[in-house]
Specification:
The protein is mainly α and 183 residues long. Helix content is 80%, strand content 0%. Helix 7 packs across helix 8. It is elongated, with a radius of gyration of 24 Å. The termini are far apart.
């Protein structure tokens, strides 16, 4: 079976028979791949279906010269699995924040001593001053990563730089901040 040709037929004519052959062949294989990678069967089934739905919608983007059909389809599945894991992590984080917030609302409010409040203000001032001493590139990635809580990949995309550059800038900025704050 020439899978690339079937994808081409889907792209060119919305060929349902070609798509049916693709679905029957790849959906169980994608699901098996996802289950082997640690997903439960229901989630793997959903992602397998979304993968083939993406194949239907984006068939025109397939380039047989750059990737084989199976590689392209499994890359879509892997990306959807990563997106699903990130979404689950964000939801868990939001639930944790909600639980902490609820506990805080129920607990009697603790009042910090004046000394603690002054120390905290001093710490904030020291960190703000240290951040100003970083280069523009380093302060930008630190702000985006730690204050805006953006994933490194998103930072790289927004700034138009490689992911490795983002990670290097963060590592160098953290080392510089440590030196500045230790002084």
């Amino acid at each position: 079976m020439e899978w690339a040709e079937l994808i081409g037929r889907v792209a060119a004519h919305g060929d349902r028979d070609a798509f049916k052959l693709l679905f029957e062949h790849f959906a169980p294989r994608v699901k098996g791949f996802l289950v082997k990678s640690g997903m439960n069967a229901d989630a793997a089934e959903e992602i397998a279906q979304n993968t083939l739905l993406t194949v239907w919608r984006k068939a025109a983007q397939f380039d047989p010269a750059s990737a084989g059909a199976a590689g392209w389809i499994f890359t879509i599945a892997r990306n959807l699995r990563i997106d699903s894991a990130r979404q689950a992590a964000r939801q868990a984080k939001a639930l944790d924040k909600a639980a902490v917030s609820a506990e805080r609302d129920e607990a009697p409010e603790a009042v910090d001593s004046p000394e603690t409040m002054m120390t905290r203000r001093d710490d904030v001032s020291r960190v703000a001053a240290a951040l100003q001493r970083l280069s523009e590139e380093q302060s930008t990635v630190i702000r985006m990563s730690f204050i805006e809580e953006q994933p490194h990949g998103e930072i790289a995309e927004r700034l138009g730089i490689p992911l490795g550059t983002v990670k290097s800038r963060i590592r160098l900025a953290m080392a510089r901040l440590k030196d500045l704050l230790d002084d």
